[in-house]
Write a structure and sequence with these properties.
Elements: H1 4-8, H2 16-30, H3 39-55, H4 58-67, H5 69-72, H6 84-95, H7 101-105, E1 125-131, H8 133-138, E2 140-151, E3 167-168, E4 177-184, E5 187-194, E6 203-204, E7 217-228, E8 237-240, E9 246-247, E10 251-253, E11 256-262, E12 269-271, E13 274-281, H9 283-288, E14 290-295, E15 300-305, E16 314-317, E17 333-339, H10 347-359, H11 371-378
Parallel strand pairs: 1-11, 13-17
Antiparallel strand pairs: 2-7, 3-6, 4-5, 8-11, 9-10, 12-13, 14-15, 16-17
Length: about 375
Amino acid sequence: MADFYNALGVARDASDDDIKKAYRKLAMTYHPDRNNGAREAEERFKEITEAYDVLRDSGKRAIYDRYGEAGLRGGTGGYHHVDLSEALNIFMRDLGGIAGFGDLFGGRGSDGAGASAGPRTGSDIRISMPLRLSDVETGTERTVAVKLLARCDRCAGSGAEAGSSPVRCATCAGAGEVRRAQKSFFGQVISVSPCPTCSGEGTLISSPCKKCRGEGRVRQEENVLVNVPAGVATGQYMTMRAVGNVGARGGERGDILVVFEVEDDPRFERDGEDLYCEVLVTYSQLVFGADVEVPTVSASVTLHVPERTESGQVFRLRGRGLPRVNASGVGDLHVRLQLYVPEALSIEEESIIRRLGEVQIAPLQRRAKGFWSKVKESLGA
């Protein structure tokens, strides 16, 4: 399992600025363009970029700190190792605007255009997914209606009216960016910014599409199938790649972030994959022993209560909890027996209980093995 903090050489409590500084330093060292495409440097560049992409995101970082890499995999498409293309895109996205980076690495466009030229990827969408505990137990599929920006069918996403086509921007010569050189105390500094004429796209549309007004996309409702993995919890999320908003004028689709909200089940308390519940039993069941029904998420099981069991005793039913998200194994169900005290008594019940009170006297000292010892024992402590 990868150690992202170790990959960047930072402490687990490192600030966002420390993480970015560490990544910048390592990226300058291992960038493929500075190492003649060496295989080892390329692998190291992908490793540190993947670590940076997780730790720079507060949500991903929180999940990683608690569950490790397995937690990041908590959903179909929720996490994957980046390839070289993705690593370079992340690098240029966050560091490409730093003075001189484009010149330093020579750009990666086929016609000399910078990394910002061309259509941009559409924006991501965040949706909430309400779930019941039964959905978490088995996993489920949900079809969600989402309003998305989809490719315009009139202009096929180009943004140009039929019979016309985008033309190359004269200001940036199709590069999508403009560069300015300024002299400073440290020498010449090159600043890179999106072209103000074409907004960084490298092309202009002289005759915009009448349906999308040159955007190349229109808003419409689409049905999206979400495969919810078993074991998820409130606050966890999964990323559905390339099914979000279409980018303007031929841009790729963004992502959909599905955030899970699991409804509380009044029968249980949840701690990760473990469940806790309380079952009421009568005095005679505790004294003489009995088989009692214990609820599980979608059914029930029989628990054998031994003779002379104390109220408050906790039993662990292994494998009766919830699945571990995107991992093997199932949690446990912890059952606490609680003596049932009726709110009202019949005449016969009252007579029997009063008689019992006359003949039974509780000892002043507890038994050798007390309640908390049994709790620890049942939990394997």
